[in-house]
Amino acid sequence: MVSELLPIRGLHLESNTTRRDLLKRAGLLGAASLLPSISLGGRHHHHHDRLSRRNVLRIAHFTDPHISPEGPSAKWLAKALEHANSLPQRPNMILFGGDMVLDGTSVSKSRMAAQWKTFHDTVRDHNSLPVNYCIGNHDVWGWFSRDADSLDRQYGKQWVQDGLSLNKPYYSMDRNGWHIVVLDSIHRHKGGYVGKLDEEQIAWLDADLAAHASMPTLVTSHIPLMSACAGLVTPRSETDGSHWHVSGAHMHIDGRRIKDVFVRHSNVNLCISGHVHLLEGLQYNGIGYASSGSVSGNWWKGNFQETPPGYALVDLFEDGSWHHDYVTYGWSA
Ligand SMILES: [Fe+2]
Q1: Tens digits of residue pLDDT in 208-236
Q2: In whole angstroms, how far apart are CA 111 and each of 119, 181, 295?
Q3: Range of 251's domain?
Q4: pLDDT, tens digit, 9 for 90 and up, residues 25-61
Q5: How far is the CA of 20 from the centre of ligand 1 (A)?
Q6: Ligand 1 center from residue 26 Cα (angstroms)
Q7: Domain presence at residue 46
Q8: Which tens digits make up the pLDDT trace of 148-198?
Q9: Per-residue pLDDT, 333
Q10: Which of 78, 195, 213, 261 is the most exposed place for a label (fewest CB within 10 A)?
C-alpha cells in the first residue's frame, strides 16, 4: 500500500488547481504571474489542514541575482524586490541564496567593489524587509584571479563576510518558532570548488541541530545538498552513455554525509538551495529539498532551460509543515 509508505513529513506535489486555491488565499493572484510548475508542501496533505494551520513565517528566497554595475541586473533585482515587498502577505525576510554578485572569483579588487556597491545600493533603495544572506561561489573574491593578492585581508570569503556582517560564513537563527540554518557550501578544491562542508562546519551543524531539537528547522545552502536536476545543468553529464556524472560543484559532494546528519535529527523539515538556476522539488527520507530557480534566470538573458527568472515564497507553519512556491516577478527581455 503506497499510502502506508508515505512518511509523516512527506512531500506533497499538488496540482495547479490546488495551487491556485492556495495562492488565492495568499492574495497572490493578479499580483504574480504563476507558472505551470509544481508547488511543494510538507507533512499535511489535506486542503483544509493547510487552510487552518498557522503560517508563522514567510521567507522570500532570492537566489543567484548575479549583480553587476552594467547591464539590466540591478533594474531587475529592484523590480523583484519591489514585487516581494508589495505582496499582500509581506514576507518576514528576504533570504538571498548566494551569487549576489556577477562574479568575484576571477576579478580585481576594484571590479569586486563595483559589483558589491551596485548590489548593496539596489537592496537599500528597493527593499524594506529584513535581509539575510547565504554565500555563493561567485561571492568569493580572487580565488581564480591573477589580479587578486592572496595575502590581502579581504581575499577569499573575508570580503563577503565583512560586507554582510557575518562573523562566520555559516550561522543559524531562530524566527517565529522556526530554526533556520544557513550553510556555507563553498569549498575550494583542485583549482575550482565543490559543494562541501569542512570538518568544523559539519560538526557545528550536528551540534546546532541537536541544540534546537524541539524546533522545526529549515536548512539553506547555496549548492543543493540533494538534487536530481544537478545532472541536467550541463549536457555533458551522461555523454559516456553508461553513467551519470554529476559534478560535486552542482550537488554537494558530501550530500550523503549530510543526509546521515539529518537522519540523526528529526527536526529538519525542508532544505532550500540555489546555484543550479533550476526549479526542482524532491523528497528523501521525509525531508523536502527545493531548488528555488534563480532571480537572474540565464544570467538575465531569459529562462535557464525551462526555469524562468523568479524567486521562491517559502511559507513555514507553526506545526512544522511548509509550502514552497516559485513566483515570477515580471522579467522580460
Ligand atoms: Fe552559484
Answers
A1: 999 999 999 999 999 999 999 999 999 99
A2: 13, 31, 22
A3: 2-328
A4: 455 444 344 443 445 665 444 444 556 789 999 999 9
A5: 31
A6: 30
A7: yes
A8: 999 999 999 999 999 999 999 999 999 999 999 999 999 999 999 999 999
A9: 86
A10: 213
What are the cell numbers at 165?
556582517
Contact predicate 215/177, CB 8 Å: yes
Instruction: Please tell me the total count of domains within the chain.
Output: 1
DSSP at 230? G
- 3-class secondary structure, 237: coil
Q: Which residues contact 332 (CB under 8 A, 6 or more apart)?
A: none
142: left (phi over 0), alpha (psi -120 to 50) or beta: left
Å from CA of 8 to ligand 1 middle? 32
The domain that holds 278 is classified in CATH as 3.60.21.10
Residue 165 lies in a domain: yes
Cα-to-centroid distance, 273 and ligand 1 (Å) = 10
Residue 49, pLDDT score: 55
